[in-house]
Amino acid sequence: MEVFSKPSFDQLTLMQSCKTTCPFSGLPVVDLSMPHSETIVKACEEFGFFKVINHGIPMEVINRSDMRDYVSAVRILAYEVLELLAEGLKIQPKDVFSKLLRDENSDSFFRINHYPPCPELQGLNGLDLIGFGEHTDPQLISVLRSNNVEGLQICLKDGNWVSVPADEKSFFFIVGDIMQVMTNGRFKSVKHRVLANSFKSRISMTYFGGPPLNKLISPLQSLLEGEESLYKELTWGDYIGAALMSNMVDNRISLFEKK
Ligand SMILES: O=C(O)CCC(=O)C(=O)O
């Protein structure tokens, strides 16, 4: 588990206020009490991002009486959603994605980020402050929950950034680079970032689901259907090693692309 500590103000990045940033009105919502696997597939194709409600994790667990119970409940939720995704894609076996996280050597981890309030923002008319710079997650899937303080933004296909309304009772799923490769680009890993808030402190908790380090990653044969693979075969260990050496904002998935 990692906990990010408070950065100093001058370590944070300022950016021009972006007029096109508006609330994400088309946010796909997956209701796990009556799941439609096709909705999850569509959300992954269109946005690489969706919100899960009625997930069945009790509030006592969400409020973390014990962190291990919390992480384990989120991991099981990730398995469930990944299995629905395989069903929606009509591929077998249904654990084709989830087995990468179920593996005892899965390279998954849990991170808590704390974004302290930045009152300095009030003096910066028209500028926003980046709390966490734009990036895609290198893993297969990330499962994020935050307190009720906004800040998370995702980048749409047209390049516009939209703000994700905070909802402390729900989980947000983020498609990672490995999922993009396994689906031969049908799903796109989504660029996201976090803006700082003047008054309120944001806390986010994310489970990053990654495969075992020695696992060879390539597009699933069952999804290629005669298409050429767009990606080279790499182990997760090779990819994460190279990704960590590069800049977070770089298009790290290009390391996988066939030239
Ligand atoms: O804090 C958030 O809402 C997003 C965090 C994030 O993108 C990350 O930890 O990689």
Automatic annotation (TrEMBL):
Keywords: Iron, Metal-binding, Oxidoreductase. InterPro entries: DIOX_N, IPNS-like_FE2OG_OXY, IPNS-like_sf, Iron_ascorbate_oxido_reductase, Oxoglu/Fe-dep_dioxygenase_dom. The lineage of its organism: Eukaryota, Viridiplantae, Streptophyta, Embryophyta, Tracheophyta. GO terms for molecular function: metal ion binding; oxidoreductase activity. This is Fe2OG dioxygenase domain-containing protein. Residues 105-211 form the Fe2OG dioxygenase domain. Belongs to the iron/ascorbate-dependent oxidoreductase family. It comes from the Eukaryota. It comes from Coptis chinensis.
